[in-house]
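The material for today's practical consists of a large collection of protein records. Read left to right, the backbone structure tokens trace the chain's path through space. An example says more than a description, so a record of this kind follows:
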Amino acid sequence: MADDGTILIGKSVKPEMLLLKLANRHGLVTGATGTGKTVTLQVLAEGFAKHGVPVFAADIKGDLSGVAAPGDSKPPFVKRAEELGLKYQPDQFTTVFWDVFGEQGHPVRATISEMGPLLLSRLLDLNDTQEGVLNIAFRIADEQKLLLLDLKDLRAILSFIAENASELTTKYGNVSSQSVGTIQRALLVLENQKGEKFFGEPGLEISDLMKTDRDGRGVINMLAADKLMANPRLYATFLLWLLSELFEQLPEVGDLDKPKLVFFFDEAHLLFNGAPKVLLTAVEQVVRLIRSKGVGVYFVTQNPLDIPDTVLAQLGNRVQHALRAFTPRDQKAVRAAAETFRQNPKFKTEEAITQLAVGEALTSTLEGKGTPTMVERTLIAPPMAQVGPITPQQRAECLRASGFAGKYDTMIDRDSAYEELMKRKGLNADGSAVEASADGGGGILDTIGGWLGNGGGGERPKTGPGSRGGRVPPSMTEKIITSAARSAATSIGRQVGTAILRGVLGSMMGGKR
């Protein structure tokens, strides 16, 4: 590790460095299974942390958790350090563990509103028609100030839409009960896969991923993803949501001496598999623009063909481990990988890719004004922290020392869309009937709703929750006006914003429905 604004990746005929001031131009680490990608990822994460740059990385197999423990001077690492002219010095890094399921790390949550209809549609594998219904649900929730926080809120608003489909169709377009039913079934599947643990409050604060420790080193945030990979669509959607939140919340900073955060996206092919064109366009836009927020994004995958060309063009720093070329598709991948490098006349890149040993890679990083260096065959530097997983006891100690246990570990269930819609049916959240007020009416909420529904003049028959028989039911317009009035009254003191945050990828759908 040099102290001159660079991270040592390894050594070819010269030390191969990653310039911190160009690290926000993103990067790509590729290679077949077992060729050393995880070690390279750890070397980069350690390098960024040493320079005070916070890191967020997904730990697919549990191997990356070793950064929290000191290395043990294994002979291969000591020998590799000597080959690079380094002294092997065991080290460890402040690490915070996160887990969508709350089992191996602090819980990570987002609200339904923050996720937005586009990402939810991707998560639920909805078609265009069903996605349109989901957009209608978000629109109605916005107009009526109904907070969509967790899965039961979304189910409640969908039930509301199904019950009033005929009246809603004239304003928002066709809403079929079949589409609503399909979405509800998809939500049930997600819930059965423990997806309900991800949606709710308290939501993750992005600033908590951008901490440094008392020594000024960047904190390494590790997402436990071994169980999350059982639902790869949830994994990809979560990381895409996180990327969109970073893009939306961080200010423009231009070019910095070093990134504010580096984001490693392991198993990156899961993000793009089967993704609709509008989502791919959104990813491309975020990757292109987020560098001005001081965030570097590094994709880690087996094959460079896993990344769309429009995204691949944004990735300036490359580390290519060995690829196998047994099939025509493998050979195509090798040629594609070779063509992404600035060629070195000293060797044939395409041949070198198939000949690389474990712990060896082809590297090309940005230099000067952002031009890529010629590709070099490089021995990757050894990590200074432990290679391989830590023990459950060590992980538990990291969780106790993180300072986030009291902040995220307990889920909060405040009044939101579900509770409000139950009130409108005259029911409590547990399904029991709401007791009538002393005057037999619904109190100030009914007074406000009745006044608005009657144009402000005189009294009107009670048609609110709980009324029965002999009374003309309110029109859909009256329902919406009354509901909005009630929601506004019950929201006093909550400081509900003028709009519910969607996340940039959801907001990009604005005007398309």
In short: Confidence is low (pLDDT under 50) at residues 437-504, 506-513. The radius of gyration is 27 Å.
